Amino acid sequence: MNSRNFTSRLQGSFELAWLSSVWRVPVGCFAILMICSISIRSAVAQDREAPAKATVDAAVIKSLDYLASLQKRQGYWEANQGQYRVAMTALAGTAMLAEGSTTTSGRYAPRIRLAVDFLLSMSRPNGLIGYREDGHYTYGHGYSMVFLSQVFGEEEDIQRREEIRDVLTRAVQFCADAQTSRGGWGYVSAKEGSDFDEGSTCITQVQGLRACRNAGIPVSKEIIDRAITYIDQCTTPQGGVEYSIRGGGARPPITAAALAALFNAGEYETELTGRMRDYCRRNVWPEKSVNANNGHWHYMHFYFAQVLYRQGGDDWTRYRDELNAKLLREMKGAGGWPDQQVGDVYVTALNCIIMQLDKGFLPIYQR
């Protein structure tokens, strides 16, 4: 034994004896307590370790394969009770695009092509992508603009490319016509919904419009400016975004989504986004754990992950690792995640997009 090790052990023995005398516990028992304490700390430290990239990638592939198994032969996915086919198809297709597959190459190319075919068939003469009978069709319309615009950028077939361009051009015009007098959107168009607005639907339209603009589809600056004004007027002095411009209380999920939408609109370092970031720090993360549930957990973290990914740095790395650890713990053995409210397709698609942000394949989510 060298002198350094001997001195260290001797010092440890004196410390153990002193602690034992202070707490009046036999030395042997105190030693066992110390060993148990060290073991617990080690277990906690291991639990906080970042999941290996290979583990995360394998979980994503398993979950995307699970999504693939749920696609109908007509090309669509659906939520519980057969609802929201347009929205679910767009989200599931976007999750597969995030893996790196396209309509012509990659593991999920056939699934993506079927999804594109279905969504193009859902384009109406007035520009709506969806069912008019669906009382929440603006969600599917916005998510479809995101998905199809990402496909459009990679499409090599000239005829199919022009078909997608036409659908997206009319979809943008539908957004303009559906916008409320205050600059927001509701579950349906302003005309059909008596000018009702709601924060989360506004976010899907802004992100869809930005995705179209990134792909080269003309988008009026006025539409975006009115939407930014709407979000500003929905935001409390503390930085929380309310359910509607009519009120309803500040909500962390809508605030996280609105912040992501403002980032999409090019609003990064403003007084408004500063207030919203402070609110999210207090109510989403890091002052709230990723394990805390404010309601609409997957929706909230789907958008907040986009915010922190764009910011990058240590915050993104720590947050991403905490999210991945939680999602890996909760994933079903066969892949995917369960959800009683909307359905497995919904949460599985959102989680797969979150876990693949670092891949950077989709322009709408890129830094």
Structural write-up:
The chain is globular, with a radius of gyration of 25 Å. Strands 1-2 form a two-stranded antiparallel ribbon. The protein has helices spanning 3-23, 27-47, 53-70, 85-98, 109-121, 137-154, 158-178, 199-214, 221-234, 252-264, 271-283, 297-311, 313-330, 344-355; strands spanning 242-244, 247-250. It has 14 helices and two strands, in the order H-H-H-H-H-H-H-H-H-E-E-H-H-H-H-H. It is mainly alpha-helical and 367 residues long.
Summarize the entry for a quick read:
This protein is an all-alpha fold. 62% of the residues lie in helices and 2% in strands. It folds into two domains: 6-44; 55-365, Alpha/alpha barrel (Glycosyltransferase), CATH 1.50.10.
